[in-house]
Amino acid sequence: MARIKPKRHGVVTDMTAMCDVTFLLLTFFIMTTQFKKPDVEQIKPPSSISEKLLPDASLMTINATSDGKFYFQPVENASERLALLDNMGKKYGITFTNNEKAAFQRVQAIGVPMGQLKSYLDMSEDEQKNYKSPTGIPMDSTNKQLIDWVQQSLSVNPDYKLAIKGDVTTEYPKVKSLFEGLRDIDFLKFWLITSQEGKPNE
């Protein structure tokens, strides 16, 4: 006598929970994504095969343009930015207003000498974005304002990290003066930002 085969039923998958998870993940990534801010000036860094990643937090950045101008990007933390501005104001004998302090918390990068910082912070955000400094932050043997920015940042938080992004055509004496200035304050560990290139055997 033949065996009675049970009737097969199609598999039904309830996708309701999957839709909920998908939208939760989508919302999470939208809320937490941080877009890279554009450079103040166009900088084409040299290439390398290094695959090391920069730290996400407590990172200050120095940008060196092709014509040797320096820009300084403080860390993103707003309260620590205020402490940095206060330190620089005390060092150079400058008092900043509340509006200037609020502007400094939002600024992308500093590229002017300390004597011009107040007028730069008084600009609107659009004017700041479109402003191209003719000098950048001074950095030579007699005027090391760029090193002062780094040193005063470290006085706010000694755990800050530093990354340097230089254009591939930046003249070596300019970069050398920066390295020597960092050596003078005994700050010898930092990252050099490069663009990715293929490995030789690829």
Report on this model:
The structure is a single chain. Strands 3-2-4-5 form a 4-stranded mixed beta sheet, covered by helices on one side. It has helices spanning 16-32, 78-92, 98-106, 117-121, 125-130, 145-156, 172-184; strands at 47-48, 59-64, 70-73, 161-166, 191-192, 195-196. It is an alpha/beta fold. It starts with 15 loop residues before the first helix and ends in a 6-residue tail after the last strand.
Structure in a nutshell:
The chain has 202 residues and is α/β, with parallel strands linked by helices. It has helices at residues 16-32, 78-92, 98-106, 117-121, 125-130, 145-156, 172-184; strands at 47-48, 59-64, 70-73, 161-166, 191-192, 195-196. It is elongated, with a radius of gyration of 25 Å.
Q: State the helical fraction.
A: 25-40%
Structural class: alpha/beta
Please state the average pLDDT score. 84
Shape: elongated
Question: What is the tally of beta strands?
Answer: 6
Strand arrangement across the biggest beta sheet: 3-2-4-5
- Series of H and E elements: HEEEHHHHHEHEE
Ranges with pLDDT <50 over ≥5 residues? none
Q: Sketch the major β-sheet.
A: 4 strands, mixed
Content of β-strand:
5-15%
Tally of alpha and pi helices: 7
- Radius of gyration (CA) equals 25 Å
What distance lies between the first and last C-alpha atoms, to the nearest angstrom?
68 Å
In quaternary terms, these chains amount to single chain
